Amino acid sequence: MTLVERFLKYVSFDTQSSEETGTTPSTPGQMVFAKYLKEELEALGLEEVTLDDNGYLFATLPANTDKEVPVVGFIAHMDTSPDMSGKGVSPRTVRNYDGGDIVLCAEENIVLSPTQFPELLEHKGEDLIVTDGRTLLGADDKAGIAEIVSAVVYLQEHPEIKHGKIRIGFNPDEEIGLGAHKFDVEKFACDWAYTMDGGEVGELEFENFNAASAKLTFKGRNVHPGYAKNKMINSLRVANRFISFLPDSETPEHTEGYEGFYHLVGVNGDVEQTTVSYIIRDHDRARFEARKAEMQRLADLINAEHGEQVVVLELKDQYYNMREQIEPVMHVIDIAFQAMKEAGVEPRVKAIRGGTDGAQLSFKGLPCPNIFAGGLNFHGRYEFVSIQSMEKAMNVIVKIAGLAAAR
H or E segment at 394? Predict the structure, then answer.
């Protein structure tokens, strides 16, 4: 089975995760896919193939050298985003893309166009796998899984490439932020690993946001509006006042690069009670802590104005910037950088304006930067992946395996 055949098979599985179920994996389709992968890895002759009750699948490609070399891992997630259906994915391949519009669904006039997505033009002349406009594709992160499995097969077929023990890990529920929560780092037993979960060719990421969630509950006091003076507290208006305190310039739609933000993600309420939800993001740890402190200061200010507690703030840290865990072991980045160069890929070192399983794993003791898998426009109907990009990602994995042993 080729790399592309694997990928097309993998996206046929419906593995959309869900924040509503409270189970691990969060949806049964992920376990169906995990069992299929387990059988495939066993059929390939891999060792230590294990699938636990939570849907975490591990396997080993044994070393083919007597030298004592590091154990390196490669990780990808099995779930697709809850943002759009991943059921009944119907991919097709656009050969030798000519740089024009790609009609995904003529019936509904759904078009993938470089006018809206100029990154398409970087893949002119390549072979693109696209959707039919009705579902997402699932390259996030089934491209990563296909690349890892195909790289393992390549290493098996080319014993002249000397490598140490390679560990493979496929996990559920990354898209809902829970991919690393039940990942058994001790059982995985690696010196370091890479998540194959980035986008454009050359992406190499070892910085991500520090992240927290904030939930504010505003308590009101409802009184007949005709007799409400000095009595009513309208929780909706109090919530609106709080929202107005935060700067418009520090929102996702006005920030880029290393700029952090407050992101208002939900408001629900009436006069009696209103809940407001935010996510807080910043690459710099000190600024991240300052943002949380500012939320608390504003909540305290509102309470002081009313002379009673009308707002309760709940802050919860979600993950931290992996850079502080990677900097002491920068050889992990150096190897990936060199591997890309040898694979004919120009490295693009960038900070993730988001999170990754690798960040959480790094803080659990497994240094784990993120490498491109080649897909673009994730989480929606305009998602696509270049076959040539997938092949380059697979080659980078092979190169890393050899370089880690050589060092």
Answer: helix 387-406
